[in-house]
Structure formats: structure tokens, C-alpha cells
């Protein structure tokens, strides 16, 4: 990597991070929404821990994984909305007219969203500790959670970037968010798959890749380093990354031809 | 201009309300993207809660005669009713932001008709959503053990909650006159609804959530609604009384908001 | 100004008796949050059937005044009646009497023009049949019949403005507020809208029109109120206001530069010579106004002086604004456009005078 390229990456990643951090209304959903939902569900669904076959006595320990995935989904919206704003305001066009490499343009954004993902994941780990969630995998597990959170944020961010490049509209990007929430709802986010009694729901949750993302994060809390769960989680991330990055590259080409 | 001699118009409260309702419903038909999400989300909630959490129906201490689907259906029904009101407040805020509300304010001789018109829109939205949610729940095998009068009571309670949600949101819309105020309309209602016994009855909640839920008005609505669908009415006077009090309070809140919009302050 | 005062007094007196479709405002003030005083005490009287032009730069308080008079914004102080009704206490009665086309067209992009007419009719309490019939008549009148079924989101700016005007007329208002009706329109659309406004005034509708275009106020308004920083700085018929500032001047450039002295001698017999006109021309103020132009031409013809150029400089409303406020009305982005229009208008006027 040449020095100029690295500098471009750094400058754009820094801008992406600072832009998010300086907009409290973007930070609120990323940090507080998952935490509030976690607090409400941890108490409201505590009775679920008394079901035979529930893997832990603490619902918070079970449910905290959902916060990481919700956070990554908010990254999709924030990254996409920020880029769409840049496109709408003409800032993106200005960047595109500089000799900067396209890969730096997108790479910078992805690094920025990844860093933000790491920060928010660290916040969730902290909240879990304060709330009394038991992290079975210990310090190493916390580091892995933060790393996985960063990767997940970047992967979902890539889809947000694709949507922004394709449509140039913040509204359209925000329209993607509910779609992902549906995936989250129809997964093993509230109960483990073995306790999903409605047959159709069990089938949907089993085919829903979000279930495996959740179970990867969750395994670090409940079981420690569960290779199967972690490998499935990484496989889903890799699959999403391939798909979303592919879509993003196509969208970037399309946008550059228009610019 | 033919007949340009002064011809005074008679835009009374109902004429204005009907005109506004007609225009909004027409817009929803033209722009399904504005309406469909509010129809689909309750169905997702119903699927995720009634389907995904059905095992909770077997949790120790959980006894609900109509089954877990009916238990969750009441939550989704009442939530949809309130959100039909909230989404209509959203349309109102959007009309203020786009300037269209000025047209309404200047043409409507009696401006209370504006608030009433949007209330009719909220009720119509809720009717469509509640019908669809009910149809899906019945198709999914929901049991209703309450009788006709009790079920009617459940929908009556839902209708009152449409006006509660609308009154709250309209007050915000009149004051802020911008869709930026959307989260302000929805977040408190969302929180209040989820700080109630959503997944299990109040008796099974423990700790702080039990303390909060015990004084949360949404709890009274849910308990009454669940009692009605199960044929074991409970706390009806409290729930209906509370809904009427809230409608009164939020009508005042909306009325003062309309005055604030009229003052341009 | 004495005439205006007399007229105002008569209108005010008749307003108390028969509630004519006029406007009367006394000491109208509007303050906004943060201590911003948008309107700082406006007195005005608009007679029934009159076109009153409210002319001023952006931010002068024109729109705020319209919002107050059309009951969309209560005054912070002062008092106003519109069509004989108090704008604060009798808002509903005012709204029944007026039509308004405000700066933002405020149309629903997903409704057609015909649906807008039905909606507006219903808001005013017209029956569906009456709203339909009246809507068709007005759409025809503003030239939108063919586009009546199309959604408004595909309309041009001019079409939206015309629809907005038609909507304002659905209930046969006696008084019409037009807030910068031609801003952003092309010349053709602007001219068409002016013609429509004139027709309405001929039919007896009182028109209160705000504008930042000098030409619009000059051409369209019977009387003009010039507003600056929330106050009316001058008011009267455009010709009277300009006459108050000074008589027109004529500038002549001899074909042969050696004839300049002779030319100056002839022109000095007609009026007061003005200092140093540019490029060898001689300028003279015309004591009897443009009527002296014919005399100038005859005198120069008699003396055998041939001219390369003859230009008439009439005072503009901008000169009035300049005289009253020390600043030019034309500014910013609008300056160029307005100057071009002003130049075009002046050109037309000069040509007309020479022909006369």
C-alpha cells in the first residue's frame, strides 16, 4: 500500500468516524436503542429462563448478542445516510473528481464504520458487564466480540454504501432498515432455536442467516469458544461480505459513470 | 369570473374534516409505501411474538385460557391501534413541513375540522390494520374464548387507543410542524408499550420491570384486552376510564398545539 | 399623497358601514422569537377592487404581513380588518372572504389538478357538484384543462402557480392575496399571470400582491406600498411616486461631436441641463415630463442637428426606494434579473415616447 493511499484511507476513515460521532441523533439509536431494548427484554422475558432447555439462568446473558447485531444494522443506516447526504450535497462528486483512488474512497468509509462498530461493541460489552451478563469466554472473548462487531458493522455498512451509491437518497437507505429488523425478529433472537415451538417459525429461523450471527456472538457469552457456532457466524459474515461488497462495487461503477 | 359577486362559503367543521380525510386516504391509495409498512409491521410483531415466543405459553405460572397467540394478539392489536394514531400524526407533521397545512389553515373556516379530519384518517387506517391483523391471527389458529360482547369491547378499547395515539401525536405535530418530530411521537409510546407485560402476564414479571409495569397505563389496557378476548373481563372500568381520561388530556394537548400553530409560535 | 389620504379616510368610513372587500391595517407589528421584529408598525388601506402592490426586498416583511392579513399569523400588536372583519377575532369570516396564493405553492404532488379543486371546494363547504363545475371553469380559465388529470408532481413551476391561483378562486373570493406570485416564473408565464390578475381586478376582486420585481409593481398595481425593514417607506400610485422623485430627463448624443455646444444651447431652452452626461451626450431635465420629448425633437429638427442617439430616462420605483432608504431595491441574485427587466422596460418606454 503506497503512502498516499494509506493517507487517503486514513483521512476518509477519520472523516466517516467523526461525522457519526458529531451527530448525537445518529449515536442515540446505535448505543441507546439496543441497550434500552435489551433492558426491557431482559426483564420482560426473564420468565423464559425457567423453560426446560433454556441455556442459561440469565436472560441478559442470552439476549445481549442481539444488541451487537442491532448495532451493526444501525451502521448500515448511518453509513448509507451519511454517504447519501454527501451525494446529495455534491461532496461525493468533489471527492470523485480528485485523483483519489476509488478503492480509497470506499475503503475509508468501511474502515470508519468498522471503527465505529468496534466502539459500539465495546460499549455493549461494558453494558453487559454492568448489567451482570456473564461472559464465559473472558477477556479474549471480549476482544473477539469487539472484533466481530467491527467486522459485522463494516459488512452491513457495505450494503448501506451500496444503497446510497445506487439511489443517492438517504430516505431510500433508511427504507432498508425495517427489512433487516424483520430478519432479526424472525430469528433466534428471543429464544434459542430448540425452544421455537411453532414449526414454521423454527423453519424460518433455521434458514435465517441472522440466527447464526446471533448464535456466534451468544456462544462467547454462554459457552466460551464454541468452534461450531463461531465458524458458522464467520461463514455468514463472509457470505454477506462477498454479496454486499459485490453489490457495492457494481453500485460504485454505476455511480462513477453518472458522476 | 362568473358569479364573482361575493358568494360566502360554508366550510363547517364536518365539511373540512371529510375533505381532509378524503385527501389523505386518496394519498395512501396512491402511495402505498406510506401505508403498507404500518400494515406489515404488526404482522411481523404477531409472527415474532406469537410464533417465536409460543414456548412461553408453557412457562411455569403462565395460565391464559385462550392460548399464547391470543395473548400476543391483544398486544399487537392495541399497539396497532395506537400506532395508527401516531402515523396519522406523522402525516400531519409532514403536511405542515411541506406547507400543505397552510392551504388547509387558510381554506378551513373552522380549523377544528383539520384536527377532526386527521382523526377520521387515523380511525380508517386502524380499521384496515386491525381487520388484517385479526384475519391473520384467526388464520393462524388463534382461539377466542370471549363472547361477542367481550370481543366488541376489545375493539372498542382499541378504537379509544387510536384517539389516544392520535391526540398525542397531533399535539406534537402542531407544535413542531416538522417530520423531524417523528421520533418524539413514537419513542415514548414505544417505550411505554414495551414497559408493560408484553410477553408474560404481570404476575410473572420480576424486579424493576414489575414495578414499572404495575403503574404503566399500557398494562391496564393489555390486562383488560386480554381479559376480554379470554372471556374473563378484568379491570374494564379502569382501562376504559383511563383511555377516556387520556383522550380528554390529549385532546386538550392537541387543541393547545393547534393554537400554537395558529399563532405561528 | 393628499388624494391617498382622502381615499383612505373614505374607505375606512365605508368599511364601518357596508363591509367592502378592502383591507385596513393600523400599527401592525409582528415579532418572532429571539426579538426579531419582522413587521414594525404598518398602516395601510386597500380599497375594494384595487390592485395593491407590496414591493420590497427579501426579508422586508412582505410575506409576514400577508400571513397576518390572511389569518395565518396573529399580529403581535396593532389591528387589521380584511373585508370588514377583524383578522384576530373574526378569522373564520375573513377566510370565507379571501383567497390566497402563498409563496410556496403547497400542493399535494400526488393529487391531480382536478382533485385539488375538489378538495379546495370541499374545504370551503361547496357541494361536490358545485366544486366540480367551478373547478372545471377555473382550470379552463388558467389553461390547465388538458393537464387536469395529471398528478401535480409532474407540473412545471408555472403550471403549479396557475393551479394555485385557480384554487384560491374556487369560492369566488372578494379579496385575493398573492404572495410573490411570479417569483421563479419565465417571462411568458409571468405575463400570463399578470393578465389574469388584471382580469380579476376588472371583475371587482381586490388584489393584494407582494413582489420584489419593480416591473411587476409598476405595471400591475394601482397603488404601491414600498416596504423596507418592516415599515412602509412610501405609498401611492407608481406614477405619483416616481413623479415625487423627479421629472424624467432626456439624453441626446449628436452625430457630429462638434455640434455638442449647439445641442446644449437648444436643450437649455427647454429645461435645466444636467451635469456631465457620458460620452459627449447632453442631458436635460424635462419640466413637463415625457410630453416635452416631442418639443425636443422638433427644436433639434428646426436647428438641423442630427442625433446619433436619443434616450429618455424616467425615474423608476428603484429610484423611489433609493430616495427613501438610501439603498437600491435590487440586490443579490435578483439584482441582475431585475436590472435586465428594468432595462427592457425602460427600452420599451423610450421607444414609445419617441414614437409619440
Description of the structure:
The complex is a heterotrimer of chains A (259), B (265) and C (356). Chain A contains ten helices and no strands. Chain A is mainly alpha-helical. Chain A has one domain. Chain A starts with a helix and ends with a helix. The model of chain A has no long low-confidence stretch (mean pLDDT 87). Chain B is elongated and about 60 Å long. The two termini of chain B are 37 Å apart. The N terminus of chain B is likely disordered. Chain C is an alpha/beta fold and 356 residues long. Chain C has two domains: 241 residues, P-loop containing nucleotide triphosphate hydrolases (Rossmann fold); 110 residues, 2-Layer Sandwich (Alpha-Beta Plaits). At the A-B interface, helix 2, helix 7 and helix 8 of A face helix 2 and helix 8 of B.
**C-alpha geometry of chain B:** elongated
DSSP strand count of chain B: 0
The first-to-last residue Cα distance of chain B is: 37 Å
What is the overall pLDDT average of chain B?
88
Alpha plus pi helix count of chain A: 10
Strand content of chain B: under 5%
Secondary-structure class of chain A: mainly alpha
Residues in β-strands, percent of chain A: under 5%
Number of strands of chain A: 0
Brief summary:
The complex is a heterotrimer of chains A (259), B (265) and C (356). The model of chain A has no long low-confidence stretch (mean pLDDT 87).
Secondary-structure topology with pairs:
The complex is a heterotrimer of chains A (259), B (265) and C (356).
Chain A: H1 3-21, H2 24-44, H3 59-89, H4 91-96, H5 102-131, H6 138-167, H7 170-185, H8 199-207, H9 209-222, H10 227-258
Chain B: H1 13-30, H2 32-51, H3 68-98, H4 100-107, H5 112-139, H6 148-176, H7 182-194, H8 208-215, H9 217-230, H10 236-263
Helix pairs in contact in B: 1-2, 1-5, 2-3, 2-5, 3-5, 3-6, 3-7, 3-9, 5-6, 6-7, 6-9, 6-10, 9-10
Chain C: H1 2-18, E1 23-32, E2 36-46, E3 51-55, H2 62-69, E4 77-82, E5 85-86, H3 91-97, E6 98-101, H4 113-123, H5 128-141, H6 157-168, E7 175-179, H7 187-202, E8 206-211, H8 214-220, E9 223-228, E10 231-236, H9 238-245, E11 249-254, H10 260-270, E12 273-274, E13 282-285, H11 292-302, E14 307-313, H12 317-325, H13 332-355
Parallel strand pairs in C: 3-8, 3-9, 6-7, 7-8
Antiparallel strand pairs in C: 1-2, 1-4, 4-5, 9-10, 11-13, 11-14, 12-13
Helix pairs in contact in C: 4-5, 4-6, 9-12, 10-11
